[in-house]
Structures are given as structure tokens and as C-alpha cells.
């Protein structure tokens, strides 16, 4: 395990921000922390970084207890904070160098680290420019370059795509995947479920300082439904097809709504279903499967929508 959090409690005065939370993260994951604004995601990662004092519980990072080994643990972590933290009066190169030096890099190691970070974030051609001339997306990329200059084993990204253009957003999501392929474990904080669903190998849904569900995207979806729904549009559906479909193994229900035949399956056997239509001589015009999204999972577990605001 790269991270083990046990029974963590964090209060801001009377407000319980982290509520007896336990969590393990395996090495090599892109681990998504998904939850609405104010759920406690940043507070949780700040405690893992040793930036926020805790009231109760234990945190172990890289197999070492944070309280006792804070300094050495921090050397192997990179943080991309929610708010862009670069110096406008320094060039991109100088910004990354500053962070490299803070992490103790010197000489060749520092130079190589800066060059690799610039190349990784696609900023090499802009290395002598100052961030004041950058777009929001470029600044975010510079923020990432500063966080990876020391080649950390773990990187924490706190909502790195908020308020940027779609092109930079895709660039960042791709670079998260590339970083992960380079053996970096990533904690990716977001309240955009589509991003988390697209890149994360494990997802924890956080709400009111607690983890209310954890698993792969598929496992989380299965938490709320075992059934799959397939809608098949055909030119002239009739009730003989419904009877045949209902007799198939794994089909729980079949019904007609206009030109659409709706089939509820507890085992996904799309082939058998579609062959049945073809054997009946039906002309299929459209097929759609409906799998629950993470938004549906959150809604079902909490009764509230995940997104309060929109991008
Ligand atoms: N320094 C602080 N003092 C008092 N309350 C705080 C402090 N920092 C955070 N909180 C409160 O703790 C709760 C959790 O905040 P946190 O920033 O961890 O949430 P989050 O899930 O990261 O949300 P967001 O997506 O908005 O960043 C919020 O209600 C917030 O107002």
C-alpha cells in the first residue's frame, strides 16, 4: 500500500471536516477522489501531505508513519494545488528550477529534472517566457511541471482542470495517464465525474468527510444496479418478439414502447438478444445500452446531485 489512512478525524473548530475516515491506496493506481464542493477532499489530501494537523487517526505513506517520517515522505510527493502557485515574475524555467531546488535537487539532477518536466508538459518552447503571458491552461501545465521536477513516486492533483479550455484539459488528462505509466501513483481530486470515470483505476466517493463508496467505475455502478437495460428500435415491433425475448435466459423483462423494445437483463447477452430480433425478421434501426453513471451512484447513495455548479 502506498497510503493507509485509519480512523482519521479532522475538525475545524466545531465543524467535522473528516469524519472517522479510513482509506488504502495501492501503488500504481490513478486514484480518484470524487465528491461535491466542501466534501473534504482537499482536507484529506492536505492531511496526507502533513499540511493540516489531525485530531485523531493514523496516516502511513510509503509504509512509514507520517508523524515520524514527514520530511522524507514529502520528498517523494508532488502536489498540483487547486490554485495555481507559480511566480509571475520568474520565467517558466526559473519557476521549475525554484521548485527543484526546494526539493533538494542540484547540478545535473536539477537540470535534467527541469528539462524533463518542461518536455513532459509541452512547455519547452516557452521556457524563457513568464507565466503572465500564459493562458490558464499553460499556467496549469507549468504548475504540473513544478510538481514533477523531482520525479515523485506519488503525485496529488487537486482539480487541475478547473477553468481551462478543452484542449489543455485533454492535455492534462493525457499527462496524468502518461505519468502513471512512468510508475507514478496519482491521486486525482475532482468533482467532474466524467474525468474521474475516464482516467481513474479506483474511485472513492467522498461526502461530508466520509468515504461513502469505493471501487472501480464498474464496481461502483454495480452497487446500485445489477441489471442492464437495452433499448432496441425496430421498424415494426410485435408481441411475438416480446414473448421470445422473455423466454431467454437472463432476460428479466421485455416491453414495447412505440418502435422501441426495452429489455431488462440481469446478465448481459447482447448477442442472443440481437439474434432473436434477426431470426424474427425484424429490421433493427438503433441499439442503446444504459449503464448507470457515477452521477447515478452518488445520487442513489446520497439523494443529492454530485455537481452543484457547472464548468
Ligand atoms: N481552514 C479551514 N477553516 C475552516 N473550515 C475549513 C477550512 N478548510 C476547509 N474548511 C471546510 O471544510 C470542509 C471541507 O473542505 P475541503 O476544501 O476539504 O472540501 P473539498 O471537497 O476539497 O471541496 P472543493 O471541491 O470545494 O475544494 C468545507 O466545508 C470547508 O468550508
From TrEMBL:
<dbReference type="GO" id="GO:0016887">
    <property type="term" value="F:ATP hydrolysis activity"/>
</dbReference>
<dbReference type="InterPro" id="IPR017871">
    <property type="entry name" value="ABC_transporter-like_CS"/>
</dbReference>
<keyword id="KW-0067">ATP-binding</keyword>
<keyword id="KW-0813">Transport</keyword>
<dbReference type="InterPro" id="IPR003593">
    <property type="entry name" value="AAA+_ATPase"/>
</dbReference>
<dbReference type="InterPro" id="IPR027417">
    <property type="entry name" value="P-loop_NTPase"/>
</dbReference>
<dbReference type="Pfam" id="PF13732">
    <property type="entry name" value="DrrA1-3_C"/>
</dbReference>
<dbReference type="InterPro" id="IPR025302">
    <property type="entry name" value="DrrA1/2-like_C"/>
</dbReference>
<dbReference type="Pfam" id="PF00005">
    <property type="entry name" value="ABC_tran"/>
</dbReference>
<dbReference type="InterPro" id="IPR003439">
    <property type="entry name" value="ABC_transporter-like_ATP-bd"/>
</dbReference>
<keyword id="KW-0547">Nucleotide-binding</keyword>
<protein>
    <submittedName>
        <fullName>ABC transporter ATP-binding protein</fullName>
    </submittedName>
</protein>
<feature type="domain" description="ABC transporter">
    <location>
        <begin position="3"/>
        <end position="233"/>
    </location>
</feature>
<dbReference type="GO" id="GO:0005524">
    <property type="term" value="F:ATP binding"/>
</dbReference>
Amino acid at each position: 500500500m502506498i497510503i493507509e489512512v485509519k480512523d482519521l478525524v479532522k475538525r475545524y473548530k466545531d465543524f467535522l471536516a473528516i469524519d472517522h475516515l479510513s482509506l488504502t491506496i495501492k501503488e500504481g493506481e490513478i486514484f480518484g477522489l470524487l465528491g461535491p464542493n466542501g466534501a473534504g477532499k482537499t482536507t484529506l489530501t492536505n492531511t496526507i501531505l502533513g499540511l493540516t494537523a489531525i485530531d485523531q487517526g493514523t496516516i502511513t505513506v510509503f509504509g512509514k508513519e507520517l508523524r515520524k517520517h514527514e520530511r522524507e515522505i514529502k520528498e517523494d510527493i508532488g502536489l498540483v494545488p487547486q490554485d495555481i502557485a507559480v511566480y509571475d515574475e520568474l520565467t517558466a524555467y526559473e519557476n521549475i528550477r525554484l521548485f527543484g531546488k526546494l526539493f533538494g535537487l542540484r547540478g545535473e539532477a536539477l537540470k535534467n529534472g527541469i528539462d524533463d518536466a518542461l518536455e513532459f508538459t509541452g512547455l519547452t518552447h516557452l521556457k524563457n517566457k513568464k507565466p503572465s503571458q500564459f493562458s490558464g491552461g499553460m499556467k496549469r501545465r507549468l504548475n504540473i511541471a513544478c510538481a514533477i521536477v523531482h520525479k515523485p513516486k506519488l503525485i496529488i492533483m487537486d482539480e487541475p482542470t478547473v477553468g481551462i479550455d478543452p484542449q489543455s484539459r485533454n492535455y492534462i488528462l493525457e499527462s496524468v495517464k502518461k505519468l502513471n505509466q512512468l510508475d507514478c501513483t496519482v491521486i486525482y481530486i475532482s468533482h467532474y465525474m466524467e474525468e474521474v470515470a475516464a482516467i481513474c483505476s479506483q474511485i472513492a466517493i467522498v461526502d461530508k468527510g466520509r468515504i461513502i463508496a469505493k471501487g472501480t467505475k464498474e464496481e461502483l455502478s454495480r452497487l446500485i444496479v445489477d441489471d442492464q437495460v437495452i433499448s432496441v428500435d425496430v421498424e415494426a415491433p410485435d408481441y411475438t418478439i416480446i414473448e421470445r425475448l422473455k423466454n431467454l435466459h437472463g432476460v428479466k423483462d421485455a416491453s414495447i414502447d412505440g418502435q422501441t423494445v426495452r429489455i431488462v437483463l440481469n446478465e448481459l447477452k447482447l448477442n442472443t438478444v440481437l439474434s432473436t430480433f434477426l431470426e424474427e425478421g425484424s429490421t433493427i434501426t438503433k441499439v442503446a445500452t444504459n449503464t448507470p453513471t457515477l452521477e447515478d451512484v452518488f445520487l442513489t447513495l446520497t439523494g443529492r446531485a454530485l455537481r452543484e455548479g457547472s464548468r
